[in-house]
């Protein structure tokens, strides 16, 4: 399967892409390579291949999501540039 320059220009227009003459030829070559590869895949006999639901049989093993206080309240405020008893002081965001 081969694509001509007019088809590439139509695809570029639909995709809102612009190519100069040298890039146009480069893109035409790349597009034809992709289409040739897809054509090779199309020729494979997949009648005895079961469809995949997932690409991998791996199962994500994640640790439980448990909250812990790793820094105490006082330790958190200790290095604050400005604080007010139990809170961080920050500049006003809203007027």
UniProtKB/TrEMBL annotation:
<dbReference type="Pfam" id="PF02686">
    <property type="entry name" value="GatC"/>
</dbReference>
<comment type="subunit">
    <text>Heterotrimer of A, B and C subunits.</text>
</comment>
<dbReference type="InterPro" id="IPR036113">
    <property type="entry name" value="Asp/Glu-ADT_sf_sub_c"/>
</dbReference>
<keyword id="KW-0547">Nucleotide-binding</keyword>
<dbReference type="InterPro" id="IPR003837">
    <property type="entry name" value="GatC"/>
</dbReference>
<comment type="similarity">
    <text>Belongs to the GatC family.</text>
</comment>
<keyword id="KW-0648">Protein biosynthesis</keyword>
<keyword id="KW-0067">ATP-binding</keyword>
<comment type="function">
    <text>Allows the formation of correctly charged Asn-tRNA(Asn) or Gln-tRNA(Gln) through the transamidation of misacylated Asp-tRNA(Asn) or Glu-tRNA(Gln) in organisms which lack either or both of asparaginyl-tRNA or glutaminyl-tRNA synthetases. The reaction takes place in the presence of glutamine and ATP through an activated phospho-Asp-tRNA(Asn) or phospho-Glu-tRNA(Gln).</text>
</comment>
<protein>
    <recommendedName>
        <fullName>Aspartyl/glutamyl-tRNA(Asn/Gln) amidotransferase subunit C</fullName>
        <ecNumber>6.3.5.-</ecNumber>
    </recommendedName>
</protein>
<keyword id="KW-0436">Ligase</keyword>
């Amino acid at each position: 399967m081969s694509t001509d320059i007019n088809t590439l220009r139509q695809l570029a227009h639909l995709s809102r892409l612009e190519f100069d003459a040298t890039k146009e030829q480069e893109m035409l070559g790349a597009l034809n390579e992709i289409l040739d590869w897809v054509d090779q895949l199309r020729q494979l006999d997949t009648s005895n291949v079961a469809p995949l639901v997932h690409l991998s049989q791996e199962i994500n093993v994640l640790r439980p999501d448990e909250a812990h206080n790793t820094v105490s309240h006082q330790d958190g405020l200790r290095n604050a540039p400005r604080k007010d008893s139990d809170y961080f002081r920050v500049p006003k965001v809203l007027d």
